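Look over both lines before class:
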Amino acid sequence: MNKPAVKEITVHVLFFGAARDTARVNSLELSVPPSTTVAAAFEYLVASFPDLKRFGRSLLFAVNQEYAAQDKLLREGDEMAIFPPVSGGAQSNEEMKGEGGIETAEQASACDYRCPVDFFELTTEAIDVGQVARRIVLPECGATVTLDGYAREWTAGRQTQYLIYEAYAPMALAEMQRLGGEAHKRFEIAHVGIVHRTGRLEIGETSVVISVSAPHRGAAFEACEWAIRELKRTVPIWKKEVFEDGEVWVEGESQRGTEGTS
């Protein structure tokens, strides 16, 4: 006996950052026909949340915690995340897949290097920069370069009261780990560690620490600079700046040069 045709599949949808504030919902279950694409699923959502139209084509999508193009087909039980560009980049999904995300099994394998002393973490607690910097001291290394990014008070002439960071945690950790593997491929380094804070940060508090050790300092400097640039471009972490007279989610800050942390 032939099985009856599946009439609908259910997709778990997550909203982050400004997209969540606009939809006024954190998550929902969406029923769509089989073989529905990401783009088509988004159109179903726009019918229920028309204010999402204000983002135009700037929103990014992930399926099962990987960046996804709009023509990707959804399957039963998939997790689809919808979010604006992360706080340091403004590419399309296709650009993210080609440059920052993983598009093919071959690319995934190439970035699958795992160094046993690397670490990638999210925390809601205050970060001890010195502890992160000296957490890994390898005998073959001669230098550790550490970046301490912290909240500053003034942004484009406006006084910031405090910051709020939000992360799509499992995907953010996976992206950090992928960046670590890529850093080892690009630079002669021995280890990289990244700790990023989420939640509310007061002015002067550390939001992110990147620590890179290497036999020679030049490679450590280069890798650390590359890592913060890529983290701000691809890792799904969003920053809200709160002012006395309002608040705003920061998007594409590297293009505008108005980031609120170092």
User: Anything to note?
Assistant: DSSP finds eight helices and 14 strands in the chain. The longest helix spans residues 169-186.
